[in-house]
Specification:
The longest helix is centred in the first third of the chain and has 17 residues. With 244 residues, this protein is α/β, with parallel strands linked by helices. It has a six-stranded parallel beta sheet, sandwiched between helices. Strands 2-3 form a two-stranded antiparallel sheet. The protein contains ten helices and eight strands. The protein has two domains: 141 residues, 3-Layer(aba) Sandwich (Rossmann fold); 80 residues, no CATH class.
Length: 244
């Protein structure tokens, strides 16, 4: 695992903004969503073991270990897309995929999130150092705000796939962040745990940092990242901030 001592020169000194993915970046993905997925499968299938197995396969999820496989659509796809994939196996679900998407979002908003590192002190430190902060997630914006209720005031920008800017890997949310803050893309770092995050960052003209608190490994992410680190707790050191 690469553990860089600082962001590659010369751009570290000019960074003024940070945009974070949510799941797998601000929050440990497997720890946060594994238990949620187990509960959702039980609610959707009851005692139908065969249906539960089919839905778990669609989600690329192992119910026994409560862990997602690397190719799980839950990692980076939108809530609507995940609902559509599941709805294809739930023909009797009232209201179809649209209704199922709302149901999943309601369950997701109540899921217990496990922070990748203590968030509030980290975000406060970055804000005090002058960084503009944003969240760009393929989850619904309302779900992101529910998860970040204790920290949302520390962000200048929060967007989801339903906020009107499109979904990653398209760069719309990131371009909306630079429009909101007035920062040029070259002064913004996109921080994420998936190829979708990093590809979106590069498409927006931003620098990219991969973290390993999602499902993807360094081998998958490194080609799309300017640097790789274990988690966002390494950001102060990577950015050259003074200890404190």
């Amino acid at each position: 695992m690469r553990r860089p001592v600082g962001m590659p020169a010369p751009f570290a000194a000019e960074l003024r903004g940070l945009v974070f993915d949510k799941d797998g970046t601000l929050y440990d993905f497997q720890a946060s969503w594994g238990i949620w997925a187990q509960a959702v499968l039980v609610e959707l299938t009851g005692e139908d073991v065969a249906l539960a197995a089919r839905l778990a396969d669609v989600m690329r999820f192992d119910p026994q270990s409560a862990r997602f496989h690397r190719d799980s659509p839950v990692i980076a796809e939108t809530n609507d897309r995940i609902a559509a994939l599941l709805a294809a196996h739930l023909p009797d679900w009232p209201g179809g995929a649209m209704s199922l998407a709302d149901w999943l979002a309601e369950r997701a908003a109540r899921a217990p999130m496990i922070e990748a590192t203590p968030l509030r002190p980290l975000l406060a430190r970055l804000g005090s150092a002058g960084f503009r902060l944003g969240v760009a997630t393929n989850d619904f914006e309302a779900v992101a705000r529910a998860h970040l209720a204790a920290e949302v005031a520390l962000f200048d920008f929060v967007a989801g796939a339903d906020s009107g800017h499109g979904a990653k890997p398209d760069p719309g949310m990131l371009l909306a962040f630079v429009a909101r803050t007035g920062l040029p893309p070259r002064q913004v770092l996109m921080v994420g745990d998936s190829r979708h995050d990093l590809e979106a960052g590069r498409a927006a003209g931003m620098r990219t940092l991969a973290v390993l608190t999602g499902v993807a490994g360094e081998d998958e992410l490194a080609p799309f990242a300017d640097a790789v680190c274990p988690d966002i707790g390494h950001l102060p050191r990577l950015l050259g901030l003074q200890p404190g």
